[in-house]
Design a protein that fits this description.
Blueprint (H helix, E strand, L loop, with lengths): L18 E6 L5 E6 L5 H17 L1 H4 L3 H17 L1 H13 L6
Amino acid sequence: MGMAVTGLSTGTSSSLSHQKIGFSSNHSTGLFAIFDGHGGIEIAEFCSRNFEKELKQNHSYQSMNYEQALVETFLRMDELLLSPEGKQEIAEINKLYPANVS
């Protein structure tokens, strides 16, 4: 099974923060992702910390419907970022990158 998810880049690499994740699973699949920081370094870091866990917990992923699982997991990241817990994690991440705070 092969799939790639890409987005358009509008910034330069010097203005972006890149975070990476990668894993392989017992489903004979793997994931490599680069979160390019268009939402800021804290969003890239948040996604790198949470995406794999949320993907693996996703029902569509467990049913081997990988395309749907990716869509659902990206939407889940948005939900998490807006949650009180997500906002707290973003605040904690910003403490690690103080020059990033506006």
